Amino acid sequence: MRRLVLAAMMIGTVTGAQAADLPDFPILRGSYVDAPSRSGNWEGWYVGGQIGYSSGDIDFSHAPSAMTSFMLRESVLADPVSGWALLPKNHAQSNGFGAFVGRNWQWDDVVLGVEANYNYLNGLESSAGDSMTRQIVNPKGETPPSGHTYTYNTTLSGSAALQVKDVTTFRGRAGWAAGNFLPYMFGGVAVGRMSVSRSATVSFDKYDAWAETQTVGNNTVTIQHNDYLGSGSAAQTEQRVNNYAVGWTAGLGLEYCVVGGLFLRGEWEYVRFAAVKNIAVDMNSFRVGAGYKF
């Protein structure tokens, strides 16, 4: 019996010594170890460059309206003529290039950031010109005598041209880190530099239509008159080489970390500007680029 107890004590001593020499495996201690994160490191400042394609809709339809209202401000023709949609809505296309700089903050898989983005556009421009003639009968504010009808044969001619030279956007970004990929969306303020010109010419001839009844013997005759009362015309031209317009921007993008801080980017951006000289402009842009995160 004493031999069995002695043998057991010796085996326990050897086993304890061997366990002490083993590596420290946390699983043996029953502790929890965080799994390695699957998210890449997108935290920090970054810069980059890009090239792209842009298409824009330029609505010239009411470009002459403010000029027409000013020229006819003391005339009964101001209200009806200034509302005419004279010019068309055109489509323009351009390629371009630019650069961006920004800052990311990351919490686990969530990435938030701010970015300034600049793009020069090579030829996003269009122009239009047209004229129309209409008859305006007894416009509001006109007081012809009883039985008289005043008619204005009015012609409006106009032209307009616009070129978007470059666009700068200031964005807030929100993304979701998925390994080396970072899909993101953004929104913010856009500032565009444009060259704008427009012209308008309005002219009219005024007539007075009335009927006169005469009795000759037993016959009553009605004579129709259409008297010419005069004409008028006015013209105005405006041009501005560097006109700054403010608008808003929104879009989606995807970045891919190639190695270290080097990443590639692809994105779609929509920009809409406030009307410039009564000309409305909105753009869709598709870009690819590369950047480096510090």
Automatic annotation (TrEMBL):
InterPro entries the UniProt entry points to: Beta-barrel_OMP (IPR027385), Enterovir_OMP (IPR000758), OMP-like (IPR051692), OMP/PagP_B-barrel (IPR011250)
Domain of life per record: Bacteria
Domain spans labelled Outer membrane protein beta-barrel: 38-294
Location in or out of the cell: Cell outer membrane
Transmembrane segments: none
Cross-referenced Gene3D superfamilies: 2.40.160.20
Membrane listed as a keyword: yes
Family classification: Belongs to the Omp25/RopB family.
Name of the protein in question: Outer membrane beta-barrel protein
Organism in which the protein naturally occurs: Bradyrhizobium brasilense
